[in-house]
Fold this protein.
Amino acid sequence: MLGGPLTPESKMAGLRSFISQFNSQALAIIGALTVGYISLKLLLSVLRGIKLYVLSRPLGLATNLKKLGAWAVITGATDGIGKAYAQQLAEKGINIVLISRTLEKLQNVAQEIETQYKVKTKVIAVDFTKGVEIYEEIEKELKGLEIGTLVNNVGMSYSYPEYFLEIPNVEKFIPDIINCNTLACTMMTKVVLPGMVERRKGAVINISSASGMLPGPLTTLYAATKVYMDFFARALQIEYASKGIIVQSVLPFFVTTKLSRIRHTSLFTPNPTQYVRSALGTVGLEQRTNGCLSHSIQGYINELAPEWLYYLVQGTMFRNVRALHYKKMQREAKKKEQ
């Protein structure tokens, strides 16, 4: 016989060679499929971004919120993103209910909107850090209004990044931030949603945060409340989509607002007007959105990056901000002593 009989050793060598070749081919196939999957996902993301942030506004692809009802309700409406929503909804010809804490600021914004956009306004001054007792009065004030859009924007955050147990006046801060960030969006939805369901149309927009996409060390409570707003919106959409209701979760990164304490715009940090103009173009098209193209790019990178890297970057940044805060406090204390 050619080559002689196969020995056990040669059989094992042949088997090992076959397995090695099979593994190499399998890994090559897996690698090709992985690259193909990532490439397809990236392509679809790019196409979706073009649709949402380039074509949506000029082609009128987003939901016409004016057709949903004559009034829009915005909480936290005197500054930042909330004020920008109020202005741009008013620009569409929708009457605006402004709800926030300071009556004078509410009246000033209401006057601006009425003068510039020729729509009706209504103001309700309440402190959203309070409990459920404030919502009976809000419900009375809203009675009889055809509310087509609710923007749950009111929120509070940390004054600086801090470890959970070292938050100043933590016993008061905990209920305040929970009431303002989670109870408010829940109760406001409970107040407004019945009328929308009865008319079988309406939009509820929750302004969550990119902080709610992953746990946020040193802003733990803020991030946790924003996760609630995100999950609440996503689940509510499933419950009420069949009744004609749009529920959207908006997760912005940094915007130049008092909450972020960032003053200057950049490629990845739009001002509230720029941000809201883009975000409104996604209503009815995207149930969960980062709101604008630059923030969507950041969100995509966050999803791809390993969590340990995210925690390393954010933890380093927030610890540095915390250290700067304490240095500032020390300098101020020395000045007082002098």
The chain has a mean pLDDT of 91. The beta strands are 71-75, 95-100, 121-125, 147-152, 202-207, 245-250, 288-289. Residues 8-59 form the longest helix (52 residues).
